[in-house]
Amino acid sequence: MLLGFLFLTLLIGLLLVASLFMLRRSSAITQTQAAINHVQVLALHLIRIDNDFFDIGTLEESYFQTHQSSFLKRHDSLVVLVHQHIEELKVSIAKSNYPAEDLLQIIEADFRTYHTTFHELERLLFERGFRDYGLEGEMRKNAHALEVAGLPLKLADVLTLRRNEKDFLLRHDLQYRDRFNELADRLLFPEGGKQLREPAFTYLSKYRDQFNRLAQIVITIGLTSADGLRDKLNALTARLSNELDVLSLRSNEFVAHEQDQFIAYYIFMILSAIVFMIFWGYWVSKRLSAPIAQLSQVIHAAMKSKKAFTHHMQMNTAAVEINALTSSFRSLFEQTEAQMKVIKKKSRQIKHRNLELKRVNQELDHFLYSTAHDLRSPLSSLAGLVRLAELENRQPEMNFYFSMMRDSIQRQEEFIKQIVTYTRNKKLELQIEQIDLRALIEKIVEDHLFIDGASRIAISVSIRNEVPFYSDRQRLTILFNNLISNAIRYTDVAKEKPFIRVTATITECEAYIEFADNGLGIAADHVGKIFNMFYRAHTESKGSGLGLFIFKKTIQRLKGQVQVESVVKEGTKFLIRLPNATVLRPQLEIGLDTVSKI
After folding, report:
1. What is the DSSP string of 468-535?
2. How far apart, in Å, are the Cα atoms of 350 and each of 248, 346, 363, 501?
3. How far is residue 315's CA from residue 289's CA, in Å, rounded to a whole number?
């Protein structure tokens, strides 16, 4: 009996020590996870501040007057905070044995590169200037000086220089830079070997040199978002976001693993104690008197109910060892109950945090819709003002700029619409109904006939229905709107008979849809990237780069598959498979074992 009691005491001691160790480790892991989340929040805030600086700060005159901005100060302070938290996180991860030390070093290095790249880009933007400041301001002064009457230059030549300058800044096309330099050199050194007279020579020379420096800055920054410092900064932003997501995922997996070990250890200890008590009680009941039998009944009852003793059990006729065993058994269950309360408390906290996260997501959705509405109203007003200005305009050369304004407003409205469409596709549940696929496609085709060039395209729709087709009408509309609008937009105007051909076969299991055109096509090195967010496969594209990204997400939401085949100057073909959610099968069957090939 004494050995049994000693073993039981040792088991209780191990349970207590392990409990303290696991509690301390659980606290350290929780703090480390919170620190990781804090670094992620700071990084996202830093990226948002930097975007605000490029969108707003670079348009403020005070920035170019003083080379100071509240955005830059906040950027530098956030960078300091991020590095401080990363250093603290290193120490915390080392103590907790987190499997993320190598990834954290990569994140820290990328943050330093991001900070350096941001300041290099900011320096070039400041040197470039805005309106009357920097290179733009100096160029404007020299250009105005060249327009003064009395100088040996034709006003038409000066205006041509300015037009090439503006075209280059607006379109970022190097041919306008070359035209500018060609005309400037011809004006500086006209035929006959004579040099342009002063002061026109000085003004024009400065104007040309300043424009070339400005062009070099624009090239360094990036003629498009896919090259230069802009591309590098965007790539760093995407990489940091991905690395932080991976770090957070590793943290969650590690926490889940530790919790599983924690629970498994406690279950093992409790089961060990219970098994020991069963065998030990059975052995004692055979050798001792009625108190032992009574104690055995109490123990068995406690094990069946799995609740701690609610009263002290003291038997006058029992041995001291029996009473000691009773007390130890009661303490064991009390400790177990306390630990389970801690686990339940942690579970409630996690549930509360999940509810809070759900609330924040709902607020973000509301913010997105409100922001989209607030952005559309001024855009509509601006479009009306541009139209009024165009009607009252008496300068034909201004029509070009009005056209560019309308295109910019339309692109912005389309961008907002696509963002809202993406969010709705992500949040809304599937609304399954019977779809007349032919009628749906033909209706979408009719809606696109007003687009320039659509009337030249021969559009054919062939549907083979073996059974009725059931799916989500709104999401199918998104799919075919994207396909048809892209096919019209990128039609090959050089071909005599452009076409769009839609064929579909509907079976009980799926709808197999083939969407083909003979448009411009997509280069092989772009085909694998066309579904990326903001990616544009054509340099002349005027879209936001969201259309095919939303197309991809919609296919995934419908649990479908898509493949793309394309040859430049020959055309593009989309091969789509969508599950048929027929009336005879539950809606949930749509998601069974369907893996997207996108």
Report:
1. -EEEEHHHHHHHHHHHHHHHHHT--TT-SS-EEEEEEEE-SSEEEEEEEE-SS---HHHHTTTTSTT-
2. 16, 6, 20, 53
3. 12
Q: For the residues of 254-310, what is the DSSP string, one character each? A: HHHHHHHHHHHHHHHHHHHHHHHHHHHHHHHHTTS-HHHHHHHHHHHHHHHHT---S
Percent of the chain with pLDDT strictly greater than 70: 76
**Count of beta carbons in the 10 Å neighbourhood of residue 592:** 9
**Quick one: 429-591 is in which CATH superfamily?**
Histidine kinase-like ATPase, C-terminal domain (3.30.565.10)
Token digits of residue 223? 């003629």
* Distance in angstroms (rounded) separating the CA atoms of residues 237 and 239: 5
- Cα-based distances in Å from 419 to 55, 422, 472: 18, 5, 19
| Domain edges within the chain | 151-215, 429-591
DSSP secondary structure letter of residue 455: G
Residue 372 sits at the vertex; the CA angle it makes with 370 and 373, to the nearest 5 degrees, is 65
The residue among 338 and 508 whose pLDDT is bigger is 508
Are 189 and 93 a contacting pair, CB within 8 Å? no
On the question of pLDDT at 316 being above 70, the answer is no
* Cα–Cα distance measured from residue 210 to residue 142, given in angstroms and rounded to the nearest whole number: 9
3-state helix, strand, coil in the chain (%, to 5): 70, 10, 25
What is the rounded distance in angstroms from the CA atom of residue 587 to the CA atom of residue 117? 50
Give the residue among 372, 371, 367, 368 at the shortest CA–CA distance from 413.
372
Task: Find out whether 229 and 120 touch, Cβ atoms under 8 Å.
Answer: yes
Distance CA 68, CA 79 (A): 17
Task: Report the percent of the chain where pLDDT is more than 90.
Answer: 12
How many other C-beta atoms lie within 10 A of the C-beta of residue 270?
17
Q: Say how far apart CA 240 and CA 79 lie, in whole Å.
A: 13
Q: Which residue has the tokens 């993406």?
A: 422
DSSP state of 40: H
User: What pLDDT, on a 0 to 100 scale, did the predictor assign at position 598?
Assistant: 37
The angle formed by the CA atoms of residues 268, 272 and 275, to the nearest 5 degrees, is 135
End-to-end CA distance of the chain: 69
Helix 290-305 to helix 228-285 angle, to the nearest 10 degrees? 160
Global pTM reads 0.43
The owner of tokens 């989500």 is 472
Span 489-508, pLDDT tens digits: 888 888 888 999 999 999 98
Picking from 454, 563, 567, the residue whose alpha carbon sits closest to that of residue 500 is: 454
Q: How far apart are CA 421 and CA 114, in angstroms?
A: 31
CA atoms of 330 and 324, how far apart (whole Å): 10
